[in-house]
Amino acid sequence: MRSNVPTVYSAVSDVDRYTEFLPWCTTSRIVERRAVGSSAEDEQLTTEICMGYKHLSATFGSTMHLQRNRRIQSTSTPNDYIEFCSFTWEFAPIGPSAARIDLKLEFELLAAEHAILWDRLQDRILAEYLNCFQ
């Protein structure tokens, strides 16, 4: 990615601003923020994000574990569409103005029709979302 690690990390961890740049994000907020462990670099966030497209919308509650400029792991609570959803972002510098970003997404959809829709649209959706963080 043509941005440095702190820039990309800041965008991914700034949940309150997701509505400004994420497609279909209608609301986003940090419900709770707290330090974790003895390191001032580690935090845990409780978040609430609402995604909507046309007549569909869903609210995702999640817990995010942040290790500043290294890793963000987010696990969502079940809702009307998903049984389980987990994102893990890992950040590594590639020189002073570029970064390697590894994104792992795991999820389980509740309905077969949602799985079929995801299979058809996943490449487009993921590309669009990843572009938002550049």
TrEMBL record:
MF terms (GO), sorted A to Z: ubiquinone binding
Domain Coenzyme Q-binding protein COQ10 START span(s) in chain numbering: 6-131
Gene Ontology biological process terms in this record: cellular respiration
One Pfam entry name: Polyketide_cyc
GO cellular component: mitochondrion
Function according to Swiss-Prot or TrEMBL: Required for the function of coenzyme Q in the respiratory chain. May serve as a chaperone or may be involved in the transport of Q6 from its site of synthesis to the catalytic sites of the respiratory complexes.
Oligomer and partners: Interacts with coenzyme Q.
Family: Belongs to the COQ10 family.
Protein name (database record): Coenzyme Q-binding protein COQ10 START domain-containing protein
Native organism: Emiliania huxleyi (strain CCMP1516)
UniProt lineage: Eukaryota, Haptista, Haptophyta, Prymnesiophyceae, Isochrysidales
